[in-house]
Design brief:
The protein has about 300 residues and is mostly helical. It has one domain: Orthogonal Bundle (ADP-ribosylglycohydrolase fold), CATH 1.10.4080.10. The radius of gyration is 17 Å and the shape is globular. The chain starts with a helix and ends with a helix. It binds inosine diphosphate ribose (R7I) and magnesium ion (2 copies).
Length: about 300
């Protein structure tokens, strides 16, 4: 049980550490990221962690169940415009604040297509943790949570892939880990992923056998704010550096582009895999509002424990 609690804490705090460190480089060209700068940078977390906090607060308040109006209200209440939200998400949250039903504005975003940004994936690790033994519930709930802001199928599928990666990481033993099995299991998730995700999972499998240059990885997997161009590289950065939290984050930030979000997602997977003991304590201690995130992670663990004992 202690190890499981470690993993819950590791994933939530690993996600916030990745977001806070990555934020310093968001939007940068990968060759401008210098390894000597990458040491003990704390700083503020961004929208990624703020939205994850909303997911945690709402699911804990609702005993692990989805409550759309409550979660949307929580996102709106927490919204802080200085934390670098995506423009589509800002507009959705402002319309809900102005009285729109919680499930209306997201459907109308991007000319009715819905957002395929990575905003649904970056906040979803609590669901991967809470439902790591129940994939059907995990997929159903991830989809419901995504729909508040991201109705495009690619935005929702990215969140499902990320939540499943966190759940798989919780279920893996670091002493006996096989990255190829991990990818095989992701490919077997009973959810119809669009070809863009299927092709990228195939590429990851190939790259694990013979890693290409960073330029090629960035070009083929993508490093931008859309879900299909960020979730796969976060998974690859975890799988190719799984035994070392620092290396996972460094790989994610070194790639440039949407560094806060890619490091947040790879940090969530690595934290679920290595546990909080895999993250140096002094890195966690400098995270803004660390106690709040730690308390929420503990509440989530208690909720899981309660459900598991039933
Ligand atoms: O997905 P979202 O919440 O943004 C998250 C990103 C992360 O990197 C955070 O760290 C923060 O910096 O922002 O916000 P959205 O605005 O829904 O999506 C992000 C961006 O993806 C949009 O601003 C668009 O540029 C693009 N995008 C689309 N472009 C065309 N058509 C998203 N959906 C579409 C689309 O359907
Ligand atoms: Mg951000
Ligand atoms: Mg980002």
């Amino acid at each position: 049980m202690k190890m499981m609690k470690d993993r819950f804490l590791g994933s939530i705090l690993g996600s916030v550490v990745g977001d806070s460190w990555g934020a310093r480089y968001e939007g940068s060209y990968h060759k401008s990221v210098r390894i000597e700068d990458f040491d003990l940078v704390g700083g503020r977390y961004t929208d990624d962690s703020e939205m994850m906090k909303g997911v945690l607060e709402s699911i804990c308040a609702n005993k692990g169940e989805f409550n759309g109006p409550d979660m949307a209200k929580t996102f709106v209440r927490n919204f802080d415009h200085t934390r670098g939200y995506g423009t589509g998400t800002i507009s959705v949250l402002m319309q809900i604040k102005d009285g729109d039903p919680w499930d209306k504005p997201a459907k109308e975003a991007f000319y009715g297509e819905g957002s395929l940004g990575n905003g649904a994936a970056m906040r979803i690790c609590p669901i991967g943790l809470l439902y790591h033994q129940d994939q059907e519930k995990l997929i159903e709930m991830t989809d419901q949570i995504s729909m508040i802001t991201h109705t495009h199928r690619l935005g929702r599928q990215g969140a499902i892939l990320q939540a499943c990666a966190v759940a798989l990481a919780v279920n893996c033993d670091p002493r006996d880990f096989e990255p190829h099995d991990f990818i095989e299991k992701l490919k077997k998730i009973p959810h119809k992923f669009s070809p863009v995700y299927q092709k990228k999972l195939d590429k990851i499998e190939t790259y694990l056998n013979s890693p290409p240059s960073p330029d090629r990885i960035i070009r083929e997997l993508g490093v931008n704010v859309t879900a299909p161009d960020s979730v796969p590289i976060a998974i690859y950065n975890f799988l190719s550096n799984s035994s070392n939290f620092y290396e996972v984050l460094f790989a994610s930030i070194y790639c440039g582009g949407d560094t806060d979000t890619i490091a947040c997602m790879s940090g969530a997977i690595a934290g679920a895999f290595l546990g909080i003991r895999g993250i140096p304590r002094n890195w966690i201690d400098i995270v803004e509002d660390v106690d709040t995130f730690q308390n929420l992670a503990e509440n989530l663990f208690e909720l899981w424990l309660e459900k598991a004992s039933k």
